[in-house]
Amino acid sequence: MTAAGAPTAVTPPPGPAAGYGGLPGGIGISRLRVYDWLAADGLRGGTPHMHLTCSEGYAVTGGRGAVQTLTAYGFEQTTLLPGALVWFTPGTIHRLVNEGGLTIVVLMQNCGLPEAGDAVLTLPPRLLADPAAYRAAVALPEGGTEEELERAARRRRDLAVEGFAALRGATEAGDLEPLAAFHRAAAALVRPLVGAWRDRWRDGAAAAASATAAQLDELEKGGAGHLAQARVRAEQPSAHARFGMCGRLDVYDVG
Question: Is 84 helix (H, G, I), strand (E, B) or coil?
Answer without folding.
Answer: coil
